[in-house]
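Q: Okay, next protein. This is Chaperone protein HtpG from Ectopseudomonas alcaliphila. I've checked the sequence twice, so it should be correct. Can you predict the 3D structure?
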Amino acid sequence: MSVETQKETLGFQTEVKQLLHLMIHSLYSNKEIFLRELISNASDAADKLRFEALAKPELLEGGAELKIRLSFDKDAKTVTLEDNGIGMSREEIIAHLGTIAKSGTSDFLKNLSGDQKKDSHLIGQFGVGFYSAFIVADQVEVFSRRAGSPASEGVYWSSKGEGEFEVATVEKAERGTRIVLHLKSGEEEFADGWRLRNIVKKYSDHIALPIELPKEHHGEEAPADVEWETVNRASALWTRLRTEIKDEEYQEFYKHVGHDFENPLSWSHNKVEGKLEYTSLLYVPGRAPFDLYHREAPKGLKLYVQRVFIMDQADQFLPLYLRFIKGVVDSNDLSLNVSREILQSGPVIDSMKSALTKRVLDMLEKLAKDKPDDYKTFWKAFGQVLKEGPAEDFANKEKIAGLLRFASTAGEGDEQSVSLADYLGRIKEGQDKIYFLTGESFAQIKNSPHLEVFRKKGIEVLLLTDRIDEWLMSYLTEFDGKHFVDVARGDLDLGELDSEEDKKAQEEVAKAKEGLIERLKGALGEQVAEVRVSHRLTDSPAILAIGEQDLGLQMRQILEASGQKVPDAKPIFEFNPAHPLIERLDAEPDEDRFTDLSHILFDQAALAAGDSLKDPAAYVQRLNKLLVELSA
C-alpha cells in the first residue's frame, strides 16, 4: 500500500458523537454482537456487487467468488474483517461512516429510553450497526475501494470514536472493504480463533457466502501460507429444507433481515412449485419500527431471483397494510435484470402478491389461535396498521376482520382483546347486528349515554377509540352475514330485541310528546336537524345522534386537523321523556326560561358525546343564571 495522499480530518455529525458515546459506554449488554453487525454489512456489500455486476460484469474484476475473511493478531490485539464486495468510494465512506442521516439517527436518539437493554435493541433497526465496533475497539481503521475504480483510488478511514475521523486516499489492489479493530484493553478475548468461530456459528451461520478463518493447526507445524477454512454453512437459509433448519437459525436469520435484536413472533417458510416457482420466508416481528406510520418510508421484502440478490425492500409483493412483515422472496419466474418498474404489475407479480398476502393472514390466524399472548403483543404493535386492510384489500376483507381486536362493554377495561368471533359467540337470541360506538378515548365512551339501553338489555357493544376506527367502519359493513350498526347514528332499531309491546309504547310516547318536540324545535332552531323521543336513553335526559349519512365526530376532527373543509352537518336531538329534567322542561310555562333550559340540555349532550361547545361562554352564562334562580 502506497503513501497516503489527500489526507483530511473531519468532524462527526452531532448525532454520531452522541451515538458513539452511547456505544463506547457499553450500551450493548452483549458485546459479541459487534461481529454479527459487521458480517451483516459485508454480506450486504456482496449482494450489492452481485446485483450491479448483472449489468456490468467488469465490476467483478475477474474475481466472481465472493467471501468474507476474518483474521486476528493476538500480539497486535487486532481483529480484521475483509470482504470483496462492492466497496466504497471516498464520498461514500464520508457519507456512510461520518454521518448517519440516512439511518434516521435523530429519530433513533429520540427513541432512547435510558434503559441500556431496551436501547441496544434499537441499533440494528436504525442501520447504525457499524458503530458497534467501538464497543470492543478503541480505534477502527477501514480500507476500501469501490468495484470498478482504479487501485489508486482506495480510501483509508480511521477514528478513535472521539468526535472526529480521518480520511485519506491510498493504493488498494483488491476491491471491497477491510476493517481493522484495535481492541481495547480487556477485550483481548476476541483475538482468538475459537472465540471468533463460535460467534460466527452462533449469529452468522445463515449468511449465504463463505465466512473464512485461518485454519488452526493444533500441535502441527503451520504451513508458510495461510490456509483458510469456511466456518459457516454458506448456503442461503431459505433454500434449505425446513426439516433441516432449527428454530434458532430461523430466529438469527430474522435478526439479519429485520435489523432487530429480538426474536420474531412467528415465521412461515414455504416453497411453491408448479406454474409459478418461488420460495418465501416471512416473519412477523414483535416490535414496531420507528417509521411504521410513515406510509412512504421504505418497506417490503428482500427480493432474490434464482438466489441472486436483486433489491432490498421490494414492496410489490405485499399490500401496504402488511408493511410490517419482514423476510425474503426468491423467484425462478422473474428475469435477473428485473427493475422496480417491471415489478409494478403483471400476472406473475399479481399472483405472487395474492398468495403471499394469504400466507401472511393465515400465519396471523395461526398465531392468534395457538399463541394468544403473542398475538396480543402483535396487536399492540401493529393493530392500527392492520385496520387499514379492509379498505385496501376487498378480497380478504372478511379474513382481516377476523383478525381485528376491540375493546367492548363485555371486555376488561380498555384492552383491545375481543374478536368478532368472540362477539358473535355471545350474541343475544334474536340479535342480527353487531353494535359499536366510536369515540376519542375509552374513558370518554365507556359511560356514554348511547350505551344505556344496551346495558339495560344486556347487549354487548364494541368500543372503538383508535383514530382510524370510524374510517375503518365505513369499509367494514358486515361480518359473517351480520351488519355493523353505529349506536350513535340514525334512528336506533333493535329489531327483534325490542318486543312488540316496547315498540307500541315507543309510538304512543312519541305521539304524546309531539307538543314538546315542536317547542324544542322552536327553541333550538338551526342547531339541530331534528328533535325526537329517544329509545336509547334510560338514565340521561338527552343525547345527540348523528345523521345516517353524516360524518361522525372522529372523522370530522381528523379532517379538520388536516386542514380539509368539513361538510356542515347538524345533530339530531333526542330526549328521554321519563327523565325528571324533561318532565320539568315540559311543564315550563315561561318561553325564555324554556329556551335557556333547552340550550343547557343541548350543550350537555354535546359534551357527553365528546364534542366541544361552539359557544362555551353562552353555556356558562345560562348555567349561572339558572344557579342564581335556584339559590334565590
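A: Here is a summary of the prediction. The two ends are 100 Å apart (CA to CA). Residues 393-496 form a domain with the Rossmann fold fold (CATH 3.40.50.11260).
Q: Noted. On to the next one.
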